[in-house]
Amino acid sequence: MTAPGWRLTDYEELAQLGSGSQGQVVLARHKTSYQVVAIKYLAADLLNDVRARTIFRDEARLIARISDPHVARLYGYVETGRGAAIVMEAIRGAPLRQVIDARGAPLTPEAALAILKGSLMGLHAAHSVGVVHRDYKPGNVLVQEDGQSKLIDFGVAVLAGQGGGSGTPAYMAPEQWLGQPASAATDIYAATCVLVECVTGAKPYQAATLDDLRMLHLRAQVPVLQLPEPLQPIAAWGLAKDPAQRLANAAEFIVHLETAASRAYGTDWEKRGLAVLGSITAGLGLAVPLVAVGGALLGSGSGATSSGAAWAGGQGAGHAAAAGHSVGGTAGKGVLAKVGGAKGAAAIGFTAAAAGTAAVIMWPSGPSIGGTSRGDVRAFFTRPDIFLRQPYMPASETPYIDYQMTVHPSTVRAGTKVRMTAKFHARLPIGAKYGPGGTRTCFGEKSKRTDVTNNYGFGMGTGKDDSSPHGMHFYPMPPVRANEFPDNPWFLVKATEKNIDNHQPYVPSLCAYDSKWTDIFDFTVPPKRDLPPGRYLVAPQHPMKLENIRRSDGDTPTPVPAAEVGGTTSGHLPIVRVVD
Predict the structure, then answer these.
(1) pLDDT digits over 11-48, tens only?
(2) Which residues form the Protein kinase domain (predicted)?
(3) DSSP-assigned beta bridge partners for residue 475
(4) What strand order describes the sheet that includes 558-559?
C-alpha cells in the first residue's frame, strides 16, 4: 500500500491489522522508544487522488485537535511524494459491536450507561474543539479490559456547522438524512441510538429499505417504551427529531445520565457496569491491539470500519477551591473558591504535500516538546432535594462546579515552561423554593426565608490552607488511572497564578449565582530528580474532587456525607508526559 514497499523507517512492523482497496493498517513498534502504535497507510493508487488524500489528511488534522482519555490519540502524520501515513494509539480492547455480539443478550443497564458516559466524555472533548464525529456506532467504540471505552474513527468527521449525509444509516440523526449541518446534537443522537441497542438488543429503528429507515428516523415516535423506565427520559432527550430539542451539550447530558443512573441503580452503578464490560472483553481472548484509526479509507463506502484483532496481551498542597453561600455570614457572595479550565484547539503543524513534496509530523520518532491536553471535572449532586431540603427540587437544578483545564505543552522535559488555562463556572441556587412538579419560585438573593435554598457550601481542595503554595499536583500513571481523582498527594510543582474575567452575578431568571472566571497558571518543569520522567495526571489543587459539603440552619456549618446527597465528581484531569 502507498508506494510499493514504502514504510516509515523508524518503525518495525509486528502484524497487519486490516486492509482494503483504500488502505492498510499495521501494528508497529518504534525502534528507539519501543512504543507500540497503529499505522494507517494510504493505498498507493490513491496517492495522486486529490480528494482521497485530502480526506486522509483531514482525518489526522481533526483528531489532532482532541486530547482526551476517551478518544484514541494521534501521534503523528507523514505525507511525502511516495506515501502517506497516520500514526495512532494502539488500544487493548475490542469493538463494542463485538462485545454486544459476544454477550448474545442485551447488556445490563449499568453497562450500557457506562458505555454511554465514556462515549459522551470523548464526544464532549471533540465538540469542545469544534469537531463532530458523525459516525458514532458500536464499531467505532473500543472497550478495554477495565471496561473503559475509547472513541475511534474520525474518517467522516467534520467541523461543527458543516453539512453532508455521511454516516451509518442505523445511527444517523434526522439532520444527516436531510444533508443539513452537523452539530454536537448529531453525535448525541447516534450515541443514544447505541444506548437503546445495548439495553434492548435491537436498534431503535429497523426497516427493510433505506427509504423506510429514513422515514422512521425523520418521523417515527421515539421508542422510549422499549427501555427501562429510568432510561426513558434519557432516550427522549437524545433522540428528539429536532436537534434544538436534544441535550446538545454532552457534559450536560452526562449530569442527567449520572443522576438517573444513581437514583435507579445505586451510586456504584458505574463500577458494576465497567466490571460487566471488562469481563466480556477479557473473555474474548484477543491477541493484538485493535487499530484505533479511522476506517473511512479502508473499504468502500463512507464510515466503513477497519478490520483487526484486539490486544489482550508527593508532597505539598495547593490552594483551596470552594463554592458556597451564606446570607449574613462571613462567606461573602457567590462562589468563594478557585477552580477552572479552558477549551482550545490543539495546535499541530500540517503541511499539504503535493507529489514530490515532503511534509512530516512524527511525534513518536523522538520525544519532542509540544501538544495540548485537556481536562474537564464537574462536581454536582444527584439528590439536591435532600442536600438543600427542597423535596420537589429536580436533579437538573443541582448546584455545581464545572472545572475545565487546558495544558500546553503537554509533552515536556525538565526546564520546559508550561501554562495551564483554567476556566471556572459554578451555579449556586439561592432564594429558590420548589413546588410539586419541580416548579420554582424565586424570592431573591437577599431573602431571609428559611424555606428557600440557602446556607450551604461545597468545594474542591477546601480542606487545605489557602495560604499554602500554589502549584500543580502531578500524579504518576500508573498507579493512578486516567479517570481517577487521587486522594494521596504525589508531586507539587510551584506555579504562579493570574485571575482574569471574574464575574459572579446573581441571575434572577436562574434564581442562582452564576459565577465565571479564568485562572492562568504558569510553571517550569523541575529537574528529573524532583519529577521523574513518565505520564502524569495534573491538577492545580488537591484533591481535585468534591469535598467539604456543608449546610447550616444557624451560625455553625454541619458536615453532610456525600453519599447522603449524591455528591458526585465526574470527568478527568489533563495528562502531561515528562520525557528525558
Answers:
(1) 999 888 777 767 888 888 888 777 788 898 988 888 88
(2) 11-259
(3) 537
(4) 321-325, 456-460, 546-551, 558-559
Cell of 324: 458556597
In degrees and rounded to multiples of 5, residue 246 shows phi and psi of -85, 165
**Over 80: is that where the pLDDT of 490 sits?**
yes
DSSP string, 239-300: T-SSGGGS---HHHHHHHHHHHHHHHH-TTHHHHHHHHHHHHHHHT--BSPEE-S--TTSSS
- Tell whether 36 and 166 lie within a shared domain: no
Whether 292 shows a pLDDT value over 90: the answer reads no
pTM for the model stands at: 0.56
Domain count, the chain: 3
Dist. CA 448–CA 425, nearest whole Å: 26
**377 and 464 share one domain:** yes
Residue 177 counted as domain residue: yes
The conformation of residue 461, written as its DSSP 8-state character, comes to S
Average pLDDT over the chain reads 78
479: left (phi over 0), alpha (psi -120 to 50) or beta: alpha
How is residue 225 annotated by DSSP?
Answer: G
**Average pLDDT of the segment spanning 203-220:** 93
Which amino acid would we find at residue 553?
Answer: D
- The residues carrying an active-site annotation are 135
d(CA 70, CA 418): 24
Q: 254-281 pLDDT, tens per residue?
A: 888 888 888 889 888 998 998 888 888 8
Q: Are residue 264 and residue 397 in the same domain, yes or no?
A: no
For 525, list phi and psi in degrees, rounded to 5: -65, 125
Cβ atoms within 10 A of the Cβ of 379, count?
29
Residues 33 and 169 in one domain: no
**Do 421 and 513 fall within a single domain?**
yes
Q: Which domain holds residue 208?
A: 94-285
Query: Could you tell me how far CA 493 lies from the centroid of its own chain?
Result: 26
Residue 124, C-alpha cell as written in the block: 464532549
In the DSSP assignment, the letter for residue 554 is S
Block residue for cell numbers 446570607: 327
Contact 340, 404 (CB under 8 A): yes
Longest distance between any two alpha carbons in the chain, whole Å: 79
Using a pLDDT cut of 90, give the percent of the chain over it.
29
Residues whose CB falls within 8 Å of the CB of residue 436, separated by 6 or more in sequence, listed in order: 392
